[in-house]
């Protein structure tokens, strides 16, 4: 456990290596957090939920930091409004690294002496929490860089794999299936509560939708035809003047996209990324197909390869039948977001190694698209009958 | 069919009898439509979707009205922005009644001569559409009157029945159940597509939550304790300064509510009305219970009495597995609202007779509460085991 | 005085004769008041400031009305928010007329028996106040009708006179001039305080700018060239997508405008109406001229004809050097608006007879243009020297 | 001139010495610019308006920078929206200093070889422009630091001088006075155009209003009494919940304020700082006095000491009678802001040495108060007569 702790902490800091000090504090939009805040907040989590409770004689690095770096745990007291996170030039980046050093050393001490079960469970949550922020950090730095006129280079390790031209549809028979996390390993509270679901038979694509296919949608007027859209999606498209995926730019008649390695020509064979649920749904309508439910995805996922991009499902993020949120502040982790959000399944190239499993329930509002996310299609019932 | 047509038309106009001309055109909020608009829009629906297509030689009453009184059918052309519906003082109320007379007479002629199946299906939709607006009219006139300092009297026929003090919990066993509309009669496209679901065993209340019980929530600080709320619900409560159900006023230490018969003291035994999904959920959390899913409700509904108030379920409004929206404009009726909305089941005292069935899927955004709606509770799993 | 009172009251009601009941309650924008509100508010003014203080035994018609129909007199207690004025369908139009009857009769009684100076001064203010609302009523009903797709006809008595093609520039010599209201007659507090000003010599047009000239501005790209605009004006043009005066519509390549007699082709020789200060300023820049100050206007006004349209001046609305606002609520009448507003001088065809004088200081925010207002130009200094 | 150039450039950079790299890029509010932007924008000004035109063979440092660091000169092409100025983490602070070095060297070369009059005039403008940004920089860094929970220390050189307890009122006789810039030295276009004004006699305070006096206003309910406020000011107070000057905090019953040397107890004898025009006006009303006009201030200023704080006048910022804005982009400097702004006269402790004169017309919107600004009172006419 101590090794995994050390490794996780190192990874968070390694991700920041391409940054200048200037890049740490920016807040370009309310849903984005500055890199400095990610570093400090994940650190605060260890201090608040573990060190102050389990390490005798631990002294908090700075009592103000609880106020500054709490994210949304109402139970822990007041916190800086989300929109103000980018307003803090102090503490400095250097001091935030000192703060991390302070907490890491104390945690390593603790993990050398204590092994009770409750503590280890919390450490597991802490590691998973910090891993989640590693992924969010990548979304955020992409947004920070991708909205600057100079399109800075971050790194080249987050490319996507080209999809096979030959798409197959995998048939899953009708039946009663068991879903939810069952193994020994770690999972979040929202995926616990194994239960049965009835699924009709369905056919699901072995491949993700590609950029080339999505350009077909654009060029056939997909963004201008209300028939494909939810009423709210149509409003979203028009009031935000959306006409392409996030980070796409048309230059001299050709599509380019900003990626972490700079502005690049769009590769038609790579999977489409950075589309909202509204766009994923509209694309499926355009193709006369549909998105899978999260349970269809979970059952079928053994038969296709996944992990490039989170995949929008047509399931609202709601509690499983026997969901019980954890007591006290940790219980605020997931349940309180179970409204007006949609489930994504899978993982992405930005997901830290060891942080994915087929029962994992990621979720975002249907208009969000700065996260790494793509589309996998399922045939509509009539299509099944006619195509077979 | 002709008789049902005539009866439906008369009901729409009877509902307006308590109004002054002044009351017909007001638009106090974006989600409310003025009475004049309800009368004209339901009328336009017959003209646009039936008369112009099925009645030879029919002349449209006024070609501008299609622009004025279309609601959200993008396929039919431009329309007045929702927020501008209250800006039209002309056509006058008198002219709208003449417009209705014109359409009613033409429809009666048509229904005396034509009987093909497609037409009768459309007439059925037209009747159901006008009935829906009759219910919306009552929500809207309550909102229009309930937000004026003089609290006008509308009528006394919409009171609620007191609930039994002895609440029972009805046990439903685990199993595979069939849901969705199966009968011969009319249904909307969103409830078609009979399919199977697996339900775990559960226990559901025979009664609705009462005003008295909800006052318990208020007095125990329910509106001030973030633990009971979704993150968005908590934000909604605080930014709108919500501290009671809609239409409630505390006067001299006692709770009053505006109802269609004026400002009245709150009756503790009547079911709680006009609460948002956020409030329904928070109340259930406060009680350590939960709301039923729409399928639990549908299966259990044979064993309790319903119809006083629409009942919030904990199901997002999403398409059934084999949902297919109708072609052309009629297809915009339901499917395009299947995002960020929650299902309500049952019916209310404002629902026209003959317009309810247990498979009916009503839906609203989770923050809406001007509709007639209440709460029915289900035990949480641990509560089931311990209480048995 | 009693005769003038009766005549003023009658005029307010005569102005409403072309209205349907439906037209009385609409509030299409925050700066517009519904006709019913004008009738009731002017009435309340008599009741609040005169009858309750001077007529023994007077009983207020309805004590709630003070809350409903106060406009902005903070000293008199709470009032309905401006944006809510359109939300009151009750009291009915009929009742508002009864309310006026009640007050008129009491005032006539009072004016038959009382003649003290303070009372007569207040009656004079009441008459002038009601006259101001008669003019505002015309602005408002034009806005209410002009924003409906049916462009209703109100009346034909508010047309403008064509301007002479031969424009002259009147020369006014440098000197010390006396400005401000000096006569015996009524004036508002903001025009009192006669004082001296020094004016350089200037040349002012004998005519108002015409529609034809303004079309020249439009066709030469005036709305697209930032050079002519204030920074705020440029922002106003772009964020509101302004490309023509209010009520103008381009139909089939020709300019039409809504006027109280319906939609009409624009007459090139009539003075331009319904432009904001921003537009008036930009037009003057385009012509390499300028607007007069309010004192230039006041001194020169004896030498040209005015009264068709209020004329924007390049003077901010600020207190005269020895301004003293009246004590208590009447003192709120003018002084509190002396910030971010610009002075207009003259009068318009919508101004009631007897309500104009050359010292009258009208004022509006620089973005407002639903009032009747036009442009008179003054030569720039270099133009004076070169043209002479 | 070259010496003054070098000195001005050095001062801009010296002002940044107390900053960390983190402090350079923050944009806490739309009216505040990040320090990095000030450094780069003033630099761009030299490059755009002088070097590219006067220095043969000059190569622009980076052609993108014109887009990034233009402020509001529409004539020079597109520019980064004001609200996006804080979104640029690149170019880095280090690079901005290299950019300044590049420009400074080129300017020094130019100033060693060229001396034509037009060039020297532009250099004078460039120096004054950079000085203005030095003062704005201090406002902005105070705002950036003053809104962080840690209240960082910047420096101690910007304190204010205590005011004499014995305030005198200086009498100025009625007369025709000449105002506007007349000397040889530099001035902006908005203060040119010497002209005559007539002033009535008035009495103006020899001292600025103190913190102690302003606390009297607060403690007598000044922020809660609409009588003292403009209608817009009253709205501003209530919608922004204003109850003290900017940067003031009540801690344990005592008033503290953030200043560039940290959080300090309020000194009753120092002049009040950081109040809006609305507050200055309300305070004057509370004292039954008034603010001076800009011309009264200019004429009387020889007889009192000024320069601690800019002083709000009761004059709107409007063009002088014979104002002519400069041709091309430089002409956008002042004239386009002459609407909805009020004039401040004098200078402040944040004003660079040599950048003040009694004809200088500073201006801000009446709600702004992050600039250094105070209040000087004038007696009202009746007070003059009765007190004498």
Provide structural commentary.
Chains A, B, C, D: One of its GO terms (biological process) is ergothioneine biosynthetic process. Chain A has 388 residues and is α+β, with helices and mostly antiparallel strands. The first copy, chain A, has 2 domains: 2-146; 169-387, paralog of FGE (formylglycine-generating enzyme). In chain A, 34% of the residues lie in helices and 13% in strands. In chain A, the strands form 5 sheets. Chain A has a 4-stranded mixed β-sheet. A 3-stranded antiparallel β-sheet of chain A has the order 5-6-7, with no helix packed on it. A two-stranded antiparallel ribbon of chain A has the order 1-4. The longest helix of chain A has 30 residues, at 117-146. Chains in contact: A-B, A-D, B-C, C-D. Chains A and B meet through strand 3, helix 7, helix 8 and strand 9 of A and strand 3, helix 7, helix 8 and strand 9 of B.
Secondary structure elements and pairings:
The structure is a homotetramer of 388-residue chains.
Chain A: H1 2-15, H2 35-54, H3 65-69, H4 93-113, H5 117-146, E1 169-172, E2 175-179, E3 195-199, E4 202-205, H6 211-219, H7 231-239, E5 248-251, E6 254-259, E7 262-265, H8 277-286, E8 289-290, H9 294-300, E9 310-316, E10 342-345, E11 362-364, E12 373-374, E13 378-379, H10 381-387
Parallel strand pairs in A: 9-12
Antiparallel strand pairs in A: 1-4, 2-3, 5-6, 6-7, 8-13, 9-10, 10-11
Helix pairs in contact in A: 1-4, 1-5, 2-4, 2-5
Number of beta strands of chain A: 13
CATH architecture of the largest domain in chain A: Alpha-Beta Complex
Strand order of the largest sheet of chain A: 11-10-9-12
> Based on helices, strands and strand pairing, what is the structural class of chain A?
alpha+beta
Give average pLDDT of chain A, whole number. Answer: 91
Strand composition percent of chain A: 5-15%
From the N-terminal CA to the C-terminal CA of chain A, the straight-line distance is 51 Å
Q: What's the CATH superfamily of the largest domain in chain A, by name?
A: paralog of FGE (formylglycine-generating enzyme)
Largest sheet entry of chain A: 4 strands, mixed
The ordered H/E elements of chain A are HHHHHEEEEHHEEEHEHEEEEEH
Question: Helical amount among residues of chain A, as a percent range?
Answer: 25-40%
Largest interface summary: A-B, 39 and 39 residues
Number of domains of chain A: 2
Name of the CATH class of the largest domain in chain A: Alpha Beta
Rg of chain A to the nearest angstrom? 22 Å
The low-pLDDT segments of chain A are 384-388
CATH topology of the largest domain in chain A: paralog of FGE (formylglycine-generating enzyme)
> What does the overall shape of chain A look like?
globular
Which oligomeric state applies?
A: homotetramer
